[in-house]
Amino acid sequence: MKTKNFKSRLIYSIEYIFSEKLLVVELNKGGIYKYFGVPFSEYLKLRFSKSPGHYYTNLIKNNGKYRFEKHDIIPLKIR
C-alpha cells in the first residue's frame, strides 16, 4: 500500500508492507527510511495526521521504538 504525493513539506511518499510490518518513508529532500516492526495502526495515524511531518519526526523517527535503515537517493527535484 503506497501513498504518493503526500501533502507534506518533509515526506514525498509512504508505503506499508503488511507481511513484514514495514513502513517505508521517502523524503522530499532525498533518502528512504525503512522502519521495521511498525503496526498498521501507526501507518494509518501517519497517513491521516493533520501534520504528517511532525507526526513522523516525533512519533516514528525520533522515538527510538523502531529499528530502521536509511537508503540515500537523489532528491526528487533533481531526478
TrEMBL record:
Domain KTSC: 7-63
Pfam families per the UniProt record, alphabetical: KTSC (PF13619)
Protein name stated in the entry: KTSC domain-containing protein
Source taxonomy: Bacteria, Fusobacteriati, Fusobacteriota, Fusobacteriia, Fusobacteriales
